[in-house]
């Protein structure tokens, strides 16, 4: 009997082409979908969103069912630019600055007073060399006329005022004050007392702070820089409307 030869199946090495073709087809379809969605009319999308929102309102699923729908907002709409803050004087302080420049002209020329615009308003910087003895909180007798001229201008304008005491980084050595914190705070509160008692400025317009050595305006590495840092800053923050029955503490202390 004749034997029948076994048929050996031929192995194909090209079957990967089928999977590759399927992958290319799916990839093509994917990009077609992306392209078609990118070309959808935005108005149609807005109408669809409005219709879906109305449907949810009718079903009670939206918390504001009786509120009319707002106009659709374009997602890519650019927000208006926000102006950066600048050190500008509040209205009314420009005239005060000119008056102070005239009134305190001798002290400004001698470097005992400096005027500048700060973040909160007009800053009148009274240097220690012109207004205070070293390690003392009392205003010098020789500087009382200049202080009086400044106080009268501030009192006439009904301004809100913050007194800030500052020192250098040299540790204080006397029996009255144990730290620069105490000296800076004492100078600012003493100036507050003068403005209230001697010049009749309303207490609710005043506040005091002591910053010690921690807010320098110059380097403490030189004697000239330390002299600039030893100061009391009178910060005029603007005018304040008087309110009947207003009760505020006239003196506060602050730390950085």
What is the spatial order of strands in the main beta sheet?
1-2-5-3-4
CATH architecture of the largest domain: 2-Layer Sandwich
Structural class given helices, strands, pairing? alpha+beta
Mean pLDDT: 78
Number of helices: 8
Rg measurement, Å: 38 Å
Proportion of residues in helical segments: 25-40%
Shape: elongated
> Strand tally, please?
5
Question: Order of helices and strands, N to C?
Answer: HHHHEEHHEHEHE
Q: What about the largest sheet?
A: 5 strands, mixed
Descriptive report:
Helices cover 38% and strands 13% of the residues. It has helices at residues 16-38, 42-58, 93-103, 105-109, 128-131, 144-156, 180-197, 223-229, and strands spanning 113-117, 122-127, 159-166, 206-210, 231-239. Helix 3 (93-103) runs antiparallel to helix 6. With 256 residues, the chain is an alpha+beta fold.
List the helices and strands and how they pair.
Elements lengths: L15 H23 L3 H17 L34 H11 L1 H5 L3 E5 L4 E6 H4 L12 H13 L2 E8 L13 H18 L8 E5 L12 H7 L1 E9 L17
Parallel strand pairs: 3-4
Antiparallel strand pairs: 1-2, 2-5, 3-5
Summarize the structure.
This protein has 256 residues and is an alpha+beta fold. Helices cover 38% and strands 13% of the residues. Strands 1-2-5-3-4 form a five-stranded mixed sheet.
Structural key phrases:
5 strands; 60s Ribosomal Protein L30, Chain: A; 8 helices; alpha+beta; 256 residues; disordered C terminus
């Amino acid at each position: 009997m004749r034997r029948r030869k076994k048929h050996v199946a031929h192995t194909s090495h090209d079957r990967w082409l089928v999977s590759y073709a399927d992958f290319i087809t799916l990839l093509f379809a994917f990009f077609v979908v992306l392209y078609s969605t990118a070309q959808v009319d935005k108005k149609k999308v807005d109408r669809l969103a409005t219709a879906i929102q109305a449907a949810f309102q009718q079903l009670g699923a939206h918390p504001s069912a009786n509120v009319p729908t707002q106009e659709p907002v374009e997602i890519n709409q650019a927000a208006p630019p926000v102006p950066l803050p600048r050190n500008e004087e509040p209205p009314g302080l420009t005239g005060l600055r000119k008056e102070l420049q005239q009134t305190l002209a001798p002290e400004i020329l001698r470097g005992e007073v400096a005027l500048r615009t700060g973040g909160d308003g007009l800053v009148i910087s009274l240097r220690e060399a012109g207004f205070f003895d070293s390690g003392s909180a009392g205003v010098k007798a020789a500087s009382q006329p200049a202080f009086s001229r400044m106080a009268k201008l501030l009192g006439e304008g009904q301004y809100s005022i913050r007194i800030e005491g500052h020192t250098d980084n040299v540790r204080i050595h006397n029996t009255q004050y144990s730290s620069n914190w105490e000296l800076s705070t004492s100078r600012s509160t003493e100036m507050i007392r003068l403005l209230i008692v001697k010049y009749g400025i309303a207490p609710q317009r005043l506040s005091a702070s002591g910053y010690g050595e921690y807010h320098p305006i110059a380097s403490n590495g030189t004697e000239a820089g330390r002299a600039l840092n030893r100061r009391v800053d009178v910060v005029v923050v603007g005018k304040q409307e008087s309110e009947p029955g207003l009760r505020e503490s006239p003196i506060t202390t602050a730390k950085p």
